[in-house]
From TrEMBL, chain A:
This is rRNA biogenesis protein RRP36. Residues 64-81, 92-112, 210-223, 232-242 have a biased composition (Basic and acidic residues). Component of the 90S pre-ribosome involved in the maturation of rRNAs. Required for early cleavages of the pre-RNAs in the 40S ribosomal subunit maturation pathway. One of its GO terms (biological process) is maturation of SSU-rRNA from tricistronic rRNA transcript (SSU-rRNA, 5.8S rRNA, LSU-rRNA).
UniProtKB/TrEMBL annotation, chain B:
This is U3 small nucleolar RNA-interacting protein 2. Residues 1-55 are annotated as: Disordered. The lineage of its organism: Eukaryota, Metazoa, Ecdysozoa, Arthropoda, Hexapoda. Its main location: nucleus. It is found in: Nucleus. Gene3D superfamilies: YVTN repeat-like/Quinoprotein amine dehydrogenase. The keyword Hydrolase does not apply.
Length: 242, 468
């Protein structure tokens, strides 16, 4: 009960207390015990309490900005003393929050120039996110019943998997290049003549590596079949043209 | 001269009130000559009537109470004429002709201002020498002294230190008359840890009825200085209360705290009145004279604000480069402020920038940082200002308003942190509260200093009081 009359008083002391609201306040106060009234007075302040109970005597006009305008610019500034003001530096803290949400690294100068190696290195974590996505989509595939949607889900899954594979290939290639460079450097250090690889040699190495990989996984036959089919199709085309 | 002073102040008797009225009316009256020319007849008639009434009363045997309505006015008139004639005869001894009237006018004005306490005196130029008098020490104040306040009659000094006791000293004898205990520990309501009480601010009401002190937390304690009894604790502030002041001649208490608010308390009703907002960082100091205006120093927001309490508005003064530690009213139109970078500013209420700023007033320390001002004292309505820091000297300054200058007048070598300075009302004594540490914390210690109150006797040579 006391809290309601508190809020009433606090809100109504600003407007000129009408007869009705004053009567209401007086009714509330009658029902409260003396101790409660004292507590209320202490909390609100003597000024607010007096105004609420006895009514605003002088026609209090709120000081507008024009009332507080100074005569000349050498006079001190005048402001209202009743508005709460945040601490020094509060505006700076709010500003920083707004700024940090709006940076686009593609167009922001602070991001610097595009360097593929640093980019791929920094965003390696995206493969993990893609794997998680693929798992989620697999689960979703079981739940969803519409065929079209299933097709769409399969498409997106395939795209994500393909992207991951490409990432892996790229990283593998970088790894091999790094190894080559290391060998050349070692040869330099030892004083021997370094062996530089040509494109054909690099390609050959790659194929050897691929062959061994397929053999380990057991997918060699399938791969060879695919290749034979492809080559056959190409030969047929060549013959057709001729 | 004696006649004139007694003319204004007479304790006891019905005549006291009336005399004050006559003094005011006489001050605003035209000079003696005009008065004499304009109303000679009325004067005679009135005298006759008063004589008549007296005569009648005596004859009839009725008491004078029946004609008392006429009596006071006539008596006032009679006394005013007597006073004016006295001044005239005194002036006639020195000057002749027109000059008498001018001098009389000036003299009436001076005496009127003196009676209401607003007479400006230039005494700073007359400081001959300052010598250290008593040194007040006590075992309960073994900790650095943080705050002190002098009673209005200048007989008692209350001091607070970084311990829980407040001591009451007699200024003539230098002995401790009484002490009271301000709770040995206070609970920090935010964290709940117990902290020792440091009395960092004390103030007294003019009639010695209330003593308010800040115990280093957010509570304000009210005590009776005569009976040494605790009256009330005010719990409104949300952070450490840094300074308190009473409005002169009233029971209104103004308090400021680190929570950036200024709170007004009425001690007649023992209640909180209102809060004023505006500062952007914790407020460090507040001062007030007899008007309903208070000036506060805003600490790190580098602004001074005068709060017009009735109109609920504030005037903002900028000009300090770094934080402001203390501020004092010099008179109703001027004030002095001391900053953390050692700068003392002289301001007038009509200008947003200072009239004069004395930079690095207390020199630079060994590490290249200026010594900040920790305390300022002022004799109200004069031009003498004292400032204290931790460079080992208390400096006295003279305020030259026309030339907009703060001229150094004297220095007193006192080592240690000068945590508080108070002048006695006539300016003959300066009470310096010295500590080994700063009153707000223990940044570093001056080992050679002694935690005590040093009473400095200031010898003044009174000049002719000039109205500025």
């Amino acid at each position: 009960m006391s809290s309601s009359s508190e809020s009433e008083m606090a809100s109504e002391h600003e407007e000129s207390a009408d007869e009705e609201t004053q009567a209401e306040i007086r009714q509330d106060l009658k029902t409260m015990s003396f101790e409660e009234i004292m507590k209320l007075k202490e909390e609100l302040g003597a000024k607010v309490y007096k105004e609420a109970v006895l009514g605003v005597k002088s026609a209090k006009t709120k000081k507008s900005k024009t009332d507080l305008k100074r005569l000349n610019k050498n006079r001190p500034r005048e402001m209202s003393a009743k508005k709460q003001v945040p601490f020094l530096g509060a505006e700076l803290r709010i500003e920083r929050k707004n700024q940090s949400q709006q940076r686009d690294p593609r167009f922001d100068e602070k991001s610097g120039d595009y360097n593929i190696e640093t980019f791929k290195k920094n965003y390696r974590f995206v493969t993990k996110i893609r794997n998680r996505e693929v798992n989620h989509l697999k689960k979703k595939l079981d739940e969803v019943e519409d065929n079209n949607e299933k097709q769409e889900i399969k498409h997106t899954m395939q795209r994500l998997i393909n992207k991951n594979v490409e990432e892996k290939k790229w990283h593998q290639k970088q790894y091999t290049l790094k190894k080559e460079r290391a060998e050349i450097q070692m040869a330099h250090n030892e004083g021997k003549q370094p062996q530089y690889l040509t494109k054909k040699e690099r390609r050959a190495k790659e194929l050897v590596h691929q062959f061994e990989q397929l053999k380990r996984d057991g997918k060699l036959n399938k791969h060879l079949e695919k290749r034979r089919k492809k080559n056959a199709a190409k030969d047929r085309k060549r013959i057709a043209i001729e | 001269m004696k006649m004139s002073s007694s003319f204004f102040f007479k304790s006891g008797g019905k005549s006291s009130k009336k005399r004050k009225h006559t003094s005011e009316s006489s001050a605003t009256q035209k000079p003696m000559s005009e008065y004499a020319i304009h109303r000679p007849k009325a004067v005679n008639e009135e005298i006759l009537s008063s004589d008549e009434s007296e005569y009648n009363a005596e004859v009839e045997g009725y008491p004078l109470a029946s004609d008392e309505d006429e009596m006071p006015q006539d008596k006032r008139l009679r006394l005013a004429k007597k006073y004016l004639s006295e001044i005239k005869t005194q002036e006639a001894e020195h000057f002749d002709g027109l000059k008498i009237n001018q001098n009389m006018e000036q003299r009436l004005q001076v005496e009127y201002l003196e009676s209401i306490g607003k007479l400006h005196r230039n005494i700073a130029a007359g400081v001959i020498m300052c010598g250290v008098g008593l040194v007040l020490k006590h075992k309960l104040h073994h900790a650095p002294i943080c705050s002190q306040v002098l009673s209005a009659d200048g007989r008692y000094l209350y001091t607070g230190a970084k311990s829980q006791y407040v001591l009451k000293w007699s200024t003539e004898s230098g002995k401790v008359l009484a002490k009271f205990d301000v709770t040995p520990t206070r609970e920090d309501h935010d964290t709940g840890t117990k902290r020792r009480s440091h009395v960092i601010a004390i103030t007294l009401s003019t009639d010695m009825k209330f003593l308010a002190l800040a115990e280093g937390g957010s509570h304000i304690q009210i005590w009776c200085p005569v009976t040494m009894k605790h009256l009330k604790t005010f719990k409104g502030h949300r952070d450490i209360v840094s300074s308190l002041v009473f409005r002169k001649g009233s029971h209104e208490l103004y308090s400021v705290a680190k929570d950036r608010s200024v709170k007004i308390w009425s001690l007649d009703e023992m209640a909180y009145v209102e809060t004023l907002f505006g500062h952007q960082s914790g407020v460090t100091s507040i001062d007030a004279l007899d008007r309903e205006r208070a000036i506060t120093a805003g600490g790190s927001d580098c602004s001074l604000r005068i709060w017009k309490i009735k109109e609920e508005s504030q005037l903002i003064y900028n000009g300090h480069r770094d934080g402001i530690e203390c501020v004092k009213f010099l008179n109703d139109e001027h004030f002095i402020s001391g900053g953390v970078d050692g700068s003392i500013g002289l301001w007038t209420t009509l200008k947003k920038k200072p009239l004069c700023m004395a930079n690095q007033a207390h020199g630079i320390a060994e590490n290249g940082v200026a010594n900040g001002i920790t305390a300022i004292a002022v004799i109200v309505n004069t031009d003498l200002v004292a400032s204290g820091s931790y460079d080992g000297y208390v400096r006295l300054w003279k305020v030259i308003q026309q030339a907009r200058k703060l001229q150094p007048v004297h220095i007193i070598p006192i080592s240690g942190f000068i945590n508080s300075l108070i002048f006695s009302i006539d300016g003959t004594k300066l009470y310096v509260a010295v500590g080994k540490e700063h009153r707000l914390g223990r940044w570093w210690r001056h080992k050679e200093a002694q935690n005590s109150i040093i009473v400095v006797n200031v010898k003044l040579q009174y000049e002719n009081t000039a109205l500025t």
